[in-house]
Design brief:
Strand 6 and strand 7 form a beta hairpin. With 118 residues, the protein is mainly beta. The chain contains one helix and ten strands, in the order E-E-E-E-E-E-E-H-E-E-E. Strands 1, 2, 4, 5, 8, 9 and 10 form a seven-stranded mixed sheet that branches.
């Protein structure tokens, strides 16, 4: 898994797989049941005009509030550079929340770094 996340950025090596693991908890730290939630991610060019790829998250433990977005080599095999991204959830009540980037005043950065082995 050649990648990592920061508060406002995701960094992945070109052509690599990377799982973005999500854990949903309430203010007291208790797991949130995420039954019937939808998780969406989009990555656009820096001008926000061209969609590079979009992903749908997979909920793998409803009661524990656990989900993941699986990035595959086909997703990350784009030109080295910086793109813009966000991750949104739609709850079972149809509420929409942008959960990434965490800073509401910033646009999320999706950075692809150079690979050597092809």
């Amino acid at each position: 898994m050649a990648g990592y996340m920061t508060q406002n950025g995701i960094v992945v090596r070109q052509g690599d797989s990377f799982d973005i693991v999500l854990q949903f908890r309430d203010a007291a730290g208790k797991a949130i049941n995420i039954q019937d939630w939808q998780i969406k991610m989009a990555v656009y060019d820096a001008d926000k005009k061209v969609l590079k790829f979009g992903k749908t998250g997979e909920i793998f433990d409803v009661e524990a509030g656990k989900a993941r977005i699986e990035l595959k080599p086909a997703d990350t095999n784009i030109e080295v550079g910086d793109y813009v991204t966000d991750i949104q959830v739609v709850t079972d009540q149809s509420d929409v929340h942008t959960i990434f980037p965490q800073d509401i005043n910033r646009v999320g950065v999706f950075r692809i770094t150079e690979q050597v082995t092809r």
